[in-house]
Amino acid sequence: MAEQVIFDKKPGAWRTFCVSTWLGWQIESNWTDLFVFLIYSIVWPLSRAAILVVMYLVIRGADFSNPEFVNMYLGNALFGLIGNVVNSVAGGIIEEREHYRTLKYLYVAPIHIPTYLVGRGVAAMAGGLLSLVTTVAFAAVFLHMPINFGQINWLLLIPAMLFGFIALVSIGLFLAGWALTIKNNPWVLGQSFSSLFFFVSGAVFPLSVVFGNWEWPGYIFPVGFWLVLTRRAIVPGVGHSFQMYTQLSDLQLLGLLALYSVVFLGIATLTFRMFDRKAREEGMIDMVSNY
Amino acid sequence: METKVIKQDGWRLFARTVIGRAYPRVVGTLRDLNWLFFDVFFPLVNMIGYVLTYQALKAPQEYVGFVVLGGAMSAFWFNVLWSMSTQLYWEKETGNLSLYIVSPTSMMAILLGMALGGMLSTALRAVVILGIGTWLFHVQYAVTSFWVLFAVFMLMIIALYGMGMMTASLFLLFNREGWHIANLFEPPVMLFSGFYFPVKTFGFWPGVAASIIPLTMGMDAMRQLAFPSGEATGLLPVRTEIIVLVGLCVFYLLAARWFLAYMEKLAIRQGKISDRLS
Predict the structure, then answer these.
(1) ipTM of the prediction greater than 0.90, yes or no
(2) Which end of chain B is more exposed for a tag (fewer CB within 10 A), N or C?
(3) DSSP output for A124-138
């Protein structure tokens, strides 16, 4: 006789999170074999970084250990992680709805949808970290940048990554909810916000290049705090020379990042609930726009 | 009342298929204005990002012009990559591909229609990007010959879309990996084709190797013809680059025809024509 399995209670948030992280990783990686996946994970970020390297080379020559360029390069590499996490959470819900057409099954399953999306975000973060480590290692070995893995300020990097992840997932959740209620081209939301972040975060160039003396655009979203903090943690001396938030100490920046991440998490939770209700009422959970 | 149906065949069917497939590319996209907006917006934002990077590096103003030109041409590259090369893969995902295969027309005509429609609709976007970029960053041009510049542009576009037609058939064999493979090609091509800097920077032989992508020679020749530095930034003389582009046009169009016939048979044999999401 077949064993009878009785589910007497809902899966908890932890189980949902673990399963969605595993599923997210499968979606990210199992479209091919390990060898091709590794090539993909290396070639894509390195090519993006190489565009910046060649641009610098034609203008300034091969002085890749210049602090200005180190900050540019690291910011560019770290920025890839922002796009990864925000797009995977915001785009993930649309991918489930439109591409795999499984969102309706997720909604009838006894799981907490935002927790599921956070799990997808963690999987994307893992993929992004692989690319980040490759890009940074390439810079240290081949471009002779002053990146010493023994000198990384882990006490700053770990909390910065944690709060940064909370902030990015929160932004992704807000966009995911919003995307659920949009009829045409919902996936452009994630891309649009990633593009916006490029200009207000100082990923490659300081805010002054875009906004002159105005600093307030850098205080709208926490992505700039996160990028500056991680730079300061990875290359302590060089990171502090980046011309953004120079008046703020590491601790003050970390405090701001923590505050913003909590506020953004609150906003994302509330707005996701609001958008979710609207999407249910308007029958958009299983909508397929077929673009 | 009976309706007389005129069955088309031969060149008439071919021509009608080309027009029929080009039509939604031009008219269809104009009907969805927010799609049109984002097709201009993303390459434009990308271009502005690179211009500001050069400005942060205090690069000469001419490099800003290179980025504006590269930004406009990137619209064609994105169109070829995402709406030509991957198109048959998308059609498979949405269930249209099997309808194309069983229809009594030529797949080459369908691809040609997609290419012509894509060229026209993307040209509109590229002009907008070029116009906004030029106006926003005060780009100065020094065009030596408009006719040669136009000829180079057309040769580059024909060769590029020929390449798109060829790779479209390769994507027939892909399933879920299709999106990732296309994504994988995006930044390396932007790097080696020299979208934002003269391809000469890589050296002679790497530059020649990168010329397998029509954008490399096309943009190199266009930079020489449109900017004050002229030949100083060029990999090869413009005349040679035009000959290479003509060769690429012939090669890619013939290769597209051969690949399509081969891949279609292979995909049918492997049962991949109607196989989505595997």
Answers:
(1) no
(2) N
(3) HHHHHHHHHHHHHHH
